[in-house]
Amino acid sequence: MQISEAEAVVMQVLWGQHPLSADEVMARLPRSNDWAEATVKTLLNRLLNKGAIAAEKEGRRYRYSPLVERDAWVLEESSSLIDRLFDGRVAPLVAHFSQHQKLTRDDVAELRKLLEGLDDEQH
């Protein structure tokens, strides 16, 4: 399911807490998003039409909840990125970040630990 960058901001809010009304979603958006109420409602409607969220009528307003799990979305997005940019391979992605000095010492240590864990699982 394709979720735009703006829609993903709304999803992050709903993944953090739900159900929420449109006003509650607006109140929880990052301060850097100076969106009008109509923009938030448009994004919620798009997400509804995509089946990413559900709406439950409560009095005169709707309360929204995610139908797509965050982990499933992250897996789909990351797989799509790796497929598009690195022919589906993770090693060139890591090499790219390494060559452009985007990996911290902590990142490298975490990657080593992950790789050691994979080695242990294979033996």
TrEMBL record:
One of its GO terms (biological process) is negative regulation of DNA-templated transcription. Keywords: DNA-binding, Transcription, Transcription regulation. Pfam families: Penicillinase_R. InterPro entries: BlaI_family (IPR005650), WH-like_DNA-bd_sf (IPR036388), WH_DNA-bd_sf (IPR036390). One of its GO terms (molecular function) is DNA binding. The keyword Nucleus does not apply. SUPFAM superfamilies: Winged helix' DNA-binding domain. Belongs to the BlaI transcriptional regulatory family. This is Beta-lactamase.
